[in-house]
Design goal:
Layout lengths: L5 H19 L31 H15 L1 H12 L3 H27 L5 H14 L9 H26 L2 H31 L1 H13 L11 H10 L5 H16 L10 H19 L5 H4 L4
């Protein structure tokens, strides 16, 4: 049984999984993924809409990926507050933040060097987004946080890879595959910490699953014009409700966390499990995906 302080109980697992992460993660440098030879001065050659070789949907997806990555200071604050700043938890939070920061550096440099986006409009949107300071407040506990970030990191990995695939640019695809590798390692870390939490207190974790699965929203929802962009991304097959169910929820909940097979649950947790399983069944037959909730990446 998990004690009133799940963070303390999970600390040894976090230390072990952090060690695994550090052994597995490969050093990489954003500048190696940017085609610098394509760069031109915006002062000498102001940006024009026809400068980019990317399709409109590829530009939309890359912009949304970047703008959600830009909110890293607030995500760091959320991780810091949920899991703490000391010991293995704190070391993980700092390492995660350092790795995530590379993503926005690399994607922004790619977009600017290839003149894929209007640099003035992009910067104005970044300023607006960060000045408003979106902080994820729908995560009431550390256990909720473990469920949410597991799903979100996997969804982000998928969205980045699918974005790269539709760009038609081998340089962009190589970059986004590299970013997705980071996201996959982050997903594996959180998934396995959550698995340990399930062993300690399955009932509390199933209740957290109900809250986070049924209310799931990817970062980016707070961006102006998010809904229109998300619909475009869903229509292109980058991230939609079918992907969310088949490639994120079902593998994590049913295969890794074995939700159907959990035993010894409280009455409330049994009802929560039933609600989550009904939700998965409902998603299978849904015909109108809530693109504004699940289509953006972080």
């Amino acid at each position: 049984m998990m004690s009133p302080s799940p963070l303390v109980d999970l600390e040894p697992v976090v230390a072990t999984l952090l060690g695994r992460h550090l052994e597995t993660a490969k050093e990489w440098f954003p500048h190696d993924y940017v085609p610098w030879d394509l760069g031109r001065s915006f002062a000498d050659a102001p940006w024009q809409p026809d400068d980019s070789r990317l399709s409109a949907v590829a530009r939309t997806a890359l912009e949304l990926n970047l703008l959600t990555e830009d909110n890293l200071p607030y995500y760091h604050l959320a991780i810091w507050n949920l899991f703490g700043s000391e010991g293995a938890w704190g070391e993980w939070a700092r390492r995660w933040t350092a790795e995530e920061a590379r993503h926005s550096i690399a994607i922004r440099d790619y977009l600017l060097v290839t003149r894929a986006v209007d640099p003035v409009a992009l910067e104005r949107e970044r300023m607006d987004h960060m000045a408003r300071g979106y902080y994820p407040r729908r995560i009431p506990s550390a256990l909720d946080g473990l469920v949410y970030v597991t799903l979100q990191e996997l969804a982000t990995r998928i969205a980045h890879r699918n974005t790269g695939a539709i760009t038609g640019d081998p340089v962009a695809e190589r970059l986004l595959v590299r970013v997705a590798v980071d996201e996959n390692l982050h997903y594996a870390f959180y998934r396995d910490v959550a698995t340990a939490a399930l062993e300690l207190n399955p009932s509390a974790m199933v209740l957290a699953m109900q809250r986070q699965v049924l209310g799931f929203k990817m970062p980016g929802l707070e961006l102006r014009g998010f809904r229109e962009r998300a619909i475009t991304i869903a229509a292109a097959g980058i991230y939609d409700l079918r992907i969310h169910r088949e490639q994120v929820l079902s593998p994590v909940l049913l295969r890794h966390w074995r939700l159907r097979d959990l035993r010894g649950l409280s009455d409330d947790a049994e009802r929560a499990r039933d609600a989550v399983l009904r939700f998965l069944d409902d998603l299978e037959t849904a015909t109108a995906p809530p693109a504004d909730e699940v289509a953006a990446s972080a």
